[in-house]
Amino acid sequence: MTRHGKKLFGLCSKMLSPLVSPICSNSLSSSEAASVIHCQRFSESMIDRSLQSAAEIITKWSIESLAYAEVTSMFNQSKEEGLRFIRCVNELQKVMYLLASEKLEYSQSLMQIAMKRLQVEFYRILSVKREPLDVESSLDRVLVADLRAIAECMISSGYTKECAEIYGNVRKSVVDEAIYRLGIVKISSQIRKMDSEAVDFRIKKWLESVNAAITTIFNAERELCDFVFAISESVSESCFTKACKDGAMLLFAFPEVILKSKKSQKNVFYLLDMFTAIIENWQRIESIFSFESTEVIRSQAIASLSVLTGSISTMLSDYESFVQNDSSNSLSVDGGIHTLALQSMDCLSLLAEYREILNIIFSWWPPPWKSSLPADSCSNTPDSDGSPVSSVSSYMERIIFILLCKLDSKARQCDDISLSYLFLANNIRFIVWQVQSSKLHHLLGDEWIAKHKAKGKQYIDNYERLAWGKVISTLPENPMAALTTAEVAEVYDNFSSSFKEAYQKQRSSIIPDPKLRFEILAIAKSWLPMYREFYHAHRFPVGQETEPNSLPNKHNPDG
After folding, report:
1. Residues 308, 282: contact at Cβ < 8 Å?
2. Residue 278, helix vs strand vs coil
3. Where is the Exocyst complex subunit Exo70 C-terminal domain (predicted)?
4. What's the first-to-final CA gap in the chain, in angstroms?
5. For 409-466, how does the pLDDT look when each residue is reduced to its tens digit (9 = 90+)?
6. CB under 8 Å to 81, separation ≥6 — which residues?
7. Are 383 and 434 in contact (CB under 8 A)?
8. CB distance 402 to 323 below 8 Å
9. Is the dihedral of CA 438, 440, 442, 447 positive or negative?
10. What are the start-end ranges of the H helices in 290-354?
């Protein structure tokens, strides 16, 4: 007798024994007593009819004498026939508890034939669609309903192991194939041989695929398992874990593999994107992998978040040191925007896009402040109250503060002081513009912007005084005052030489900001009204160069 037969025979004997020996009825539970009453009322003819009906359809669809390739799908041929088959098997399962031993062997044999058929049907339906099945989709609803009916029939008949094994094997291959098609592959054994371009390609593929893997593949598999195995949560758990564990571990281990290999390009934005992909899906991850047996998957996701947090924190701290230790002396003679300012502000503007993610990272693992700043007027470092948001704002403010200090030290290398102030004005205007036009505005605020705009105005005022002050000083305070011919000539000579000197110094200057360019042009022309007034008061009539009020045409400000 098989394991199924022994189990049924034992229960059947216990249930039928009161019919033979009523004295034993006191040992039955209330539910067993109810079953006994049912047994007593169940007529022999009804049992025989149920047995005969089950035998007809089970033997009709028997696969005992057929090769697997010859087996056609019962559910494909006739949906109604497939459901009738399951109903008959379920009825057979019920009457087996009521059969005498001589008929139990036969019904048990029928059950084995039926289970072999259902195993084939289960496998065939599972294999029809090699992609995630959607329990809510009208296209997949029939398939998943058939799977559920078969699963419930097999489990209630004692064939849980066989049902779970078929489901787990088929769906695991489907999940693994879907993960592979997304471009997520095992690279732990290959990564040390991969060049940086290949690593970057794999990171990009992972970033493109992670959301689809979580929301489409794993979420769909969890919903499918829950629906098909609604009769048993433990079976649902074991089947889901077998189908998805390897693929999920491969997915969530990827960031850790990349970082531990030390083959990444140290691109902090890749790391931030990977962190974002996991943290933004965390509620889904916890919901999908909520089983005790999938705790290892959640732990792997947390491990990747941890190494990403540490690496990002370290890289941000290292970037501060990079700005602080910049030793480039590439201060151009045009006073334009320095490369360090361009690179730093581009980087900070992009980092500001991740401010909410950085809040989380800083709350877990705030970066150590590495820089030691010079003890001068530039070292009034920004404060932080220690909160994550404040820490992110403080980090951004601190980097810009260090950048301004570095630009100030570079400006001191300039031979012409006026050009150094133009250099500082250009750079601080660029920095303020970058803050205003990016998410840095939200982190640093209006007060910071107003403060640094004022500092930029000071630089422009200093530039005006040093670049054009000497030119303006050559003109008399009162342009209309009476002067001798010699005095007028001296004014023109001094003005001409100082103007030429200033012009030669400033002619190569670059001012990228149109507004600043307009302001500088206005400064350069601020002397023009005074000069025009002096010219009209002291110009020489033509042919009377010795007259005090005559002037050569080359000095004509209107010419």
Report:
1. no
2. helix
3. 204-543
4. 122
5. 888 888 788 888 989 999 999 999 999 999 999 999 999 999 999 999 999 888 888 8
6. 57, 74
7. no
8. yes
9. negative
10. 295-324, 339-352
Query: pLDDT at position 517, please?
Result: 74
pLDDT tens-digit series, residues 92-139: 988 887 776 768 888 888 999 999 999 999 999 998 887 778 888 877
- In the 3-class helix/strand/coil scheme, how is 226-245 assigned residue by residue? HHHCCCCHHHHHHHHHHHHH
Counting other chains too, the contacts that 181-190 makes at CB distance below 8 Å and 24 or more residues apart are: 182/208, 182/209, 182/212, 182/213, 182/217, 183/208, 183/209, 184/209, 184/213, 184/247, 184/250, 184/251, 184/254, 185/250, 186/250, 187/254, 187/257, 188/253, 188/257, 188/261
Tokens of 146: 């058939």
- Quote the CA–CA distance of 104 and 2 in Å, as a whole number: 11
Mean pLDDT of 293-310: 95
Helices marked H in 325-439 — which ranges?
339-352, 355-364, 388-411, 417-436
Those residues whose C-beta lies under 8 Å from the C-beta of residue 515, and which sit 6 or more positions away, are 429
pLDDT in tens, 204-227: 999 999 999 999 999 999 999 999
Q: Which two structure tokens, joined as six digits, stand for 51?
A: 């047995």
pLDDT-derived band at 507 (thresholds 50, 70, 90) equals: low
Lowest mean pLDDT among 125-134, 244-253, 418-427, 511-520: 511-520
Give every CB contact of residue 317 below 8 A, 6+ residues apart in sequence: 367, 368, 369, 370
CA dihedral 441, 442, 446, 447 (to 10 degrees): -110
Rg (the chain; Cα; Å): 43
The tokens describing 310, both together, are 């540490």
| pLDDT for 556 | 56
Q: Is the pLDDT of residue 12 over 60?
A: no
Q: Are 154 and 162 in contact (CB under 8 A)?
A: yes
Rounded Cα distance between 272 and 203, Å, is: 12
Length of the chain (residues): 559
> What amino acid is encoded at 426 in this protein?
N
Q: Which residue has the tokens 């307009």?
A: 518
Residue of 492, 494, 542 lying closest to 553 (CA atoms): 542
Find the largest Cα–Cα distance for the chain: 153
Token representation of residue 463: 């530039």
User: What's 37's DSSP letter?
Assistant: H
- Calculate ∠ Cα 124-289-157, nearest 5°: 40
* Phi-psi category of residue 476: left, alpha or beta, with phi > 0 → left and psi -120 to 50 → alpha: beta
Helix-strand-coil split of the chain, %, nearest 5:
75, 0, 25
DSSP letters spanning 243-258: HHHHHHHHHHHHHHHH
Q: Which two tokens stand for residue 538?
A: 């002291």
Three-state DSSP at 132 gives coil
Tokens of 96: 């087996």
